[in-house]
Amino acid sequence: MPNLEELVQxxxxxEAIISDWDESQRCVAVGLKRAIEALHKxxxxxxxxxxxxxxxxALRDAVADEVVYAVLLYHELVKPPxxxxxxxxxxxxxxxxxxxxxxxxxxxxxxxxxxxxVEVRLIGTCSSCPAxxxxxxxxxxQAIKNHCPEITKVVAVNNNPTINNANSGLISPFSSQITSTxxxxxxxDQVPEFSVLAVQLAGNSLILHRQGATVTCYRNTCTHLxxxxxxxxxENGIITCPSHGFQYKLETxxxxxxxxxxxxxxxxKIKDDKVFVKLQKS
Length: 282
Ligand code: FES
Description:
Blueprint: H1 4-19, H2 23-54, H3 56-64, H4 66-74, H5 85-101, E1 105-113, E2 117-124, H6 125-128, H7 132-147, E3 153-156, H8 161-164, E4 182-187, E5 197-201, E6 204-211, E7 214-219, E8 233-235, E9 238-240, E10 247-249, E11 265-266, E12 268-271, E13 274-278
Parallel strand pairs: 2-3
Antiparallel strand pairs: 1-2, 4-13, 5-6, 6-7, 7-11, 8-9, 9-10, 12-13
Helix pairs in contact: 5-7
Bound molecules: FE2/S2 (inorganic) cluster (FES).
The site of FE2/S2 (inorganic) cluster has 9 residues, from loops.
């Protein structure tokens, strides 16, 4: 009896021959293949149903055979094998790492505690960021749960104390260059009431918003994972981050999603029709 490899080689050989045929001949061959496959899939589905009713162990034995398994997999009648838990957790962490790294943060796996708990450590600015709980629950935790449904608890442990030390010399990517000079950034009619205007000032990206004659200015950086806010939808004076939906009141910069967090704001002065901003935290 031929083994799986030989059977697959035989199929590949015919597929290579058919691929050289002209279009109309290929369509006939592919149509025939699909019709036969549909028939086999229907028969296999019925077979699995009755085997399940009779004996799950007989079904398990049958699926253990590599040819049976390969055919059932091809017809999507069995799930592909999951990579080991460790590998899936690493994949999940790799997925969120670019976002964390974009504001000098990172995450590392500390321990897997079967059956359902994973411990991680947030490092860099993520550990000291006021939104770190949300960074964990909305980014890291969600990614781990997506890849590993068996994990229900993702816990941040032992944040690196040196990172929280104000004297550590860590420069937050959200910190801005401070100047004590008022700098003109726009004219008042350039600042919209129903959206925001993004401007660059001394290497800092800022957003301006106007409510009547009052203009507010914030750093163009979401407190969640650092996305720019300029493309965010503004409704009733509230801007929604386009990345994951954090919302901020443009009058005060206060975050409505994570109430302990606010956008970094800057003083604004209006003289005649000109808007001036000072890069000094207000
Ligand atoms: S970056 Fe996640 S909500 Fe803004």
